[in-house]
Write a structure and sequence with these properties.
This protein has seven helices and five strands; from the N terminus they run βαβααβαβααβα. By secondary structure, it is an alpha/beta fold. It has a five-stranded parallel β-sheet with strand order 2-3-1-4-5. α1 packs across α7 (157-169), α2 (34-42) packs across α3 (46-69) and α5 packs across α6 (128-143). It binds shikimate-3-phosphate.
Length: 178
């Protein structure tokens, strides 16, 4: 494998963290999650940063963490759903990585997000499904620039991981070039 990073973009609840962690393990790369790095750096939960300091401050911290992370090599990077809204972030993702879009249908996103709604500050309004649809529409043009996408709605984490590996390395599971 080259030195490039693999960057997972996509809406919350599309499986970026779970898929990223599994993928990294399978290809012997290091896994990093930008939301977790922000929490380590600040000692605060993402949801508390939103509540106490506002989304702008969160986006600034996110950009800072992405600048640091994208100096790395051979990482699997899971990004926050809104990271693609910042052009500098996007440039860094594309310069130093293969960008993969994890997608899912809005109803699936809602179902997954509801398990941890307390951690999803953007979905706390009275009609979260509408919010998801609206945000997805807004963000789709950015997600769509990825090298390829995988719809995670109806498949397991393992299946998503093997599709990504297949696309990136051109190898199917259990097949070897030897
Ligand atoms: C956000 C998604 C969250 C987190 C923050 C904002 C967004 O990350 O960064 O709550 O704007 O969609 P996940 O996509 O990992 O849930």
């Amino acid at each position: 494998m080259g030195l490039k990073n693999i960057v997972l973009i996509g809406f919350m609840g599309t499986g970026k963290s779970a898929v990223g962690r599994r993928l990294a393990k399978e290809i012997f790369s290091r896994f990093v999650d930008t939301d977790r790095l922000i929490e380590e750096k600040t000692g605060k939960k993402v949801v508390d940063i939103f509540a106490e300091e506002g989304e702008r401050r969160f986006r600034a911290l996110e950009a800072e963490v992405i600048r640091e992370v994208m100096k790395g090599e051979r990482l699997v990077v899971s990004t926050g759903g809104g990271a693609v809204l910042n052009q500098d972030n996007l440039d860094l993702f594309y310069q130093n990585g293969t960008v993969v879009w994890l997608a899912a249908r809005p109803e699936i996103i809602l179902k997954r997000a509801q398990r941890r709604i307390g951690n999803r500050p953007l979905l706390r309004g009275s009609n979260p499904l509408l919010t998801i649809e609206h945000l997805l529409e807004q963000r789709k043009p950015y997600y769509k620039r990825a090298a390829f996408s995988v719809d995670t709605s109806d498949i397991s984490i393992d299946e998503v991981v093997s599709q990504i590996k297949e696309k990136i390395f051109g190898l199917e599971d259990n097949k070897s070039i030897a």
